Amino acid sequence: MLGEVAFCVGELSAAKTYSENAMALYDPQQRSAQTLAYGEDPAIDGRFWCGTSLFLMGYPDHALQGFREILALASELTHANGLAVASLGLAWVHTDRRESHEARSHAETALVFATEHGVPFLLGWGTIMRGWTLSAQGDGEAGVAELRQGLAIYHATGATELLTFWLAPLAEAYLKNEQTEEGLATVSEALAFADRTDERFYEAELHRLKGELLLAQARQKAGGKKA
Predict the structure, then answer these.
(1) Residue 147 burial (10 A CB sphere; 0-12, 13-18, 19+)
(2) Which tops the pLDDT comparison, 131 or 24?
(3) Which domains does the chain have, with CATH numbers?
(4) Among 45-49, 89-93, 212-216, the range of highest mean pLDDT
């Protein structure tokens, strides 16, 4: 849990260390009891936050390998929730690596689980990830629609964690659609949330997107190239 919190506030080195410590303390003999009590396997969770931290620290290949190990572990445990989380983690990494086909495949795998088992949190997450891939593959209108749907599902659960990350792909999709006002409003919402909650792990990307949107807006106003 310390690793998760450290990640969210942007303390990536600390998040990696906490997650590695958790994996070192992990006792496979207690696996069944912990998974039954919490619905999650500590080894899977530890690897998840370690992988996301590694990616944002600049180690995309290590992060990808880590998520593949999570998927293998979840398959070994036949842990359905873990398989869905691993699939969504892989979708996340592939999306940020701009590998949209792989990202979409993993997102859809997670969506099957979320739909069959009625897990709205994962359904919202998976829908957002698939919307991102649709936009990346050139279907901007469908991408925005699915991103908004995923966010609505996510909001309905009452969850707020990682909202800065969930809003970023919507802003990016608006940029691709030349909807700069909507994109800037989305980035402003995400940055306001970061200021209110101190969720900082994706703040740099939000500022990059804001810059891209402002440049695109300036071109539009000058009647120059399309965004």
Answers:
(1) buried
(2) 131
(3) 1-78 (1.25.40)
(4) 212-216
